[in-house]
Each structure stands twice: as C-alpha cells, then as structure tokens.
Write a structure and sequence with these properties.
Layout: E1 6-19, H1 23-39, E2 48-61, E3 65-70, H2 76-84, E4 91-96, E5 100-103, H3 116-126, H4 131-145, H5 160-173, E6 178-182, H6 190-205, E7 209-213, H7 217-223, E8 226-231, E9 234-240, H8 241-253, E10 260-261, E11 302-305, E12 309-318, E13 321-322, E14 332-341, E15 349-356, E16 361-366, E17 384-392, E18 398-410, E19 413-428
Parallel strand pairs: 3-7, 3-8, 5-6, 6-7
Antiparallel strand pairs: 1-2, 1-4, 8-9, 10-11, 11-19, 12-13, 12-14, 14-17, 15-16, 15-18, 18-19
The protein binds adenosine-5'-triphosphate.
C-alpha cells in the first residue's frame, strides 16, 4: 500500500479528559501545574483523569466505508471529533487526505437564529465552497432535505428530524472526499434513512471514504466494508463487518467477560469414517467436534463461549435430501444438532437464528421461547443432547446463514457456552412465486366488477 492510499490514518491516539469536583479546581489545574513545571517542582493534579480513548490505531483507505460500533460511552464520538479536528488528542497522530464533511452532534453546524437557507450558505462556506458553487447546489440540497417552507424559517423552529435532514443534505451534496456521520441518520424517518443510504452508496461509488457511527448494527453489515469495535476506550476488534458486529452484539447482550475464542477443531483429529446416514435418524457424532467437516459449514463462522458445552455436529435435510445444495422456497427443513455438556449446565437454552448474507435477522427463536419440553432434565456434566428443529423455509431465493448457540441463565445474565454465529450456509433456490425475503403466503382475489351494479 502506498502512503497515498489512506483517507484517514489514526496512529496510537489517546484522549484524556479531566473532571473536577469544584469549578475552582479547574482554574487551579489551568495555572498551578504550569507554574510548578516552570519552577521544577512536583506537578499537582486537581482533576480526575478519564481516558476516553486509549492507543487507538487504524487506517481508512480511499473509497472505503468503515463502521464504528460500541456501547454508550465507549469513545466513538470522541474519536470522530478528533478526526474532524474539533478535539485535540492527548497523544498520538491523525492524518487525513481530502475535504472532510461531517455530521456530528445534531445541528452542531447550524446557527439556530439563522434560517435553513442561510445555514446552507454558512455550512457550504465552512466546507470551502464559494457562493456560486453553493448557488449551483442549493436546489439539490433543498430538494434532498425536502423540508418545504421551513427552509426559510430559523433553524431553532426545526424538529430534530428536520435539522438532520438539512444537515445531511448539505454535507452529502458537497461531494466530500471524506464523510463522517455520527449516529445522525437514526433521527430521520425510515424513508429519509433509505434516501441517505442511497446517497451514501453514490458517494461511495464516486470514491468518497465514509466513517459511520451507528448503533444499528445491521446497517454496518449492509453498508460497510470493515468495522471497528470500541469497548472501554480501546479497539476491541477491527475487521470485516460481520464478525465485528457479532462480537459487538455479544458484548451488548452476552457476558461482559472477554470470551474464549473457540477455534474449529483440528481436521486431523476428526473422524473421517464414511457412514451411511439416514435423514430421518442421522448418525450424529457425539464424541468429536465434526461440525466444521459437514457440507454447508461456513468456515467464516464466528464462534465463542465459555466452553461449558460444545455444539459438536449437525445434520440438515429437506424432504429426505441430505445436506442439499439448495432448498425450495416453502420446503420443510430438518436440522438436527448434537451437543455435549462439558460441565453441569442448569436449564440450557439452544438458540437458532436465520440471517440474510447482509446480516439482517429474518427469524430467531430458542428452546426457552418455544417452551421446549424436557430441557430441565438435560445438562448433566459429561452428558449429551440431540435437538431436532423443523421449519418451513418460507423464504425468497438467496443465501441464508444459520447461527446456533448454547447458553444458560445466571440470574439476569445470559452465559454463552458455545455460540456458532453464521455457522451454516444454505441456499433457497430461485422461485418465480415471490419477490423479497420471506413468503407471507399472501392470497389474492380479483373479481371483475360489473359496471352496471
Ligand atoms: N468533555 C468531556 N469531559 C469529560 N468526559 C467526557 C467528555 N466528553 C466525553 N467524555 C466521556 O468520554 C467517554 C466517551 O464518550 P463518547 O461520547 O465518545 O462515547 P460514545 O461511544 O460516542 O457514546 P454514545 O454511544 O453514548 O454516543 C464517556 O464516558 C464520556 O462521558
């Protein structure tokens, strides 16, 4: 990679904020340490240090769209502000190449006393456009924002949705080389969001680099080439969007403790004996982890858990066809799963999720939600269990991924023992009968109307 390829380069950036118990402490902090340093004395600190970012490093390539995810307070907005130059890092370096447009805090770029129109000119000027250039783009900006007569009202009279519409319209219509969007799109309604993502797609095609902070993780999988997960001020994970989002969801909904990453078993240790399998009662392996040797296994699965149980094997069939290359829309699919409890697990929960290849969850359930019988009697240390899931693949054609997970509850907390995200790939064959993701089994009646009635 040549050094010119990056749009944003963040090298070992840390940011420390000071919080003060009393306003006078803030004043003392701004004077006394300097004096002490000047006099060569020991430096006193009057504030409490809080590190919002620690040793964050990554590059965004030209034309790349990168999502940043993380829990509240993990440092996302601080990082974006540092990249935009509105905050200085305490240590580390930032370099950017190209004109940056940014949609940070809601309406932060607007003067509330000025009208929308005046703010468009102000914002355009800040982004380096001349009056003529803004004149040329004004109709496109107003058309995109679509806020009608409000364009001539003071911005203080806008709803937050209107403010974000106008702000996005300005930033996205100036053809930036780098666009930074902080969660702002979540404020707009669904139609506006779709319009924004279409605009982001066009910008991307034209080579704009986009950095997107959002809590909507599916947007990250759908729109971003890569993602960065911040947790407790540090980069927890960086890589392709799907595994990063999976890890983020685990931090959000799973146990906070860093899980043991479980790797697929060593192929040499797997049983390779040829076996006769009957779809009705397939031979599942309950001794060795042969999951990753099965047809349809996705080697890019994301797997983790505390190892209390292991999902060892699966068998998928449709109308007697074992591990079919594709299933017909609406066909019944039978998925059998073999589990070993490595230690005592009380009331284990087996989860099942079906997602599109873009990461959109189509369906999810688990043995608890389904009120499965017999779950209370399984889970003894060293014992095994077999689950049989049946579902009608009422889906549109395309690629789908199944995630399986074995967990249990400790009070309010869910404890994941073996989660195998996106571990099974299956394909629904093209169907002329429907468009879209799922088959709603719509019925339709059309009758001729006698005009004389
Ligand atoms: N000016 C400041 N002074 C002191 N602490 C601050 C300041 N700005 C941010 N922080 C703290 O830094 C941490 C990171 O804040 P930041 O807004 O970057 O998080 P975030 O990941 O964007 O959160 P959210 O998802 O809630 O928007 C938080 O704990 C916040 O309280």
């Amino acid at each position: 990679m040549s050094s010119d390829d990056f749009a944003i380069s963040v090298q070992d950036v840390s940011k420390c904020f000071y919080t003060y118990e009393k306003p006078s402490d803030r004043l003392k902090q701004s004077i006394v340490p300097r004096l002490q340093r000047f006099l060569g004395d020991k430096v006193t600190s009057y504030g409490k240090e809080f590190w919002a970012l620690r040793n964050v490093s990554f590059d965004v390539q030209k034309g790349e769209t990168v999502g940043i995810v993380g829990r509240n307070g993990s440092g996302k907005s601080t990082l974006l502000q540092i990249i935009c130059g509105t905050l200085m890092p305490t240590t580390g370096q930032i370099a950017t190449q190209g004109r940056i447009a940014a949609l940070l805090e809601l309406g932060s770029g607007f003067n509330p006393e000025f009208s929308g129109r005046e703010n468009v000119y102000l914002n355009g000027a800040v982004l380096g456009l001349s009056k003529d250039e803004i004149d040329d783009r004004f109709d496109a900006i107003a058309g995109f924002a679509d806020i009608g007569e409000f364009i001539d009202q003071p911005v203080k009279a806008y709803s937050s949705g209107m403010a974000v519409r106008l702000a996005f319209a300005v930033q996205a219509q100036v053809d930036p080389e780098i666009l930074i969007v902080d969660e702002a799109l979540s404020v707009g309604d669904a139609r506006f969001q779709a319009k924004c993502f279409e605009r982001l797609r066009q910008l991307k095609e034209n080579g704009t680099s986009i950095l997107l902070v959002t809590h909507a993780s599916e947007q990250v999988v759908t729109h971003c080439n890569r993602a960065i997960l911040l947790d407790r001020s540090r980069v927890e994970m960086i890589g392709s969007s799907r595994p990063v989002v999976n890890r983020y969801l685990d931090i959000l909904f799973g146990r906070e403790k860093r899980p043991e990453a479980l790797s697929p078993p060593d192929a040499d240790t797997l049983s390779t004996e040829a076996r006769e399998l009957s779809p009705a009662d397939p031979v599942l392996d309950f001794n060795t982890d042969v999951f990753s040797t099965r047809i349809g296994y996705n080697p890019h699965e994301y797997r983790w858990g505390d190892g209390g149980a292991t999902i060892l094997d699966y068998h998928l069939s449709a109308n007697g066809r074992e591990f079919p290359n594709s299933v017909e829309s609406g066909e019944e699919v039978v998925l059998q799963v073999a589990v070993r409890f490595n230690r005592m697990i009380v009331n284990p929960i087996l989860g099942f999720t079906l997602k599109t290849k873009e990461g959109v969850t189509v369906y999810g359930t688990n043995s608890f939600m389904l009120e499965c019988d017999g779950v209370q009697s399984i889970g003894a240390a060293g014992s095994h269990a077999k689950a049989c899931l049946r579902f009608a693949a009422r889906l549109g054609s395309g690629d789908f991924f199944i995630s399986l997970g074995l967990a249990s509850r400790e009070g309010e907390e869910i404890v994941p023992h073996d989660r195998r995200y996106d571990s099974l790939h299956f394909v629904v064959a093209p169907t002329p009968k429907l468009l879209g993701l799922i088959d709603l089994a719509v019925s339709m009646e059309i009758d001729q109307v006698n005009e004389n009635v």
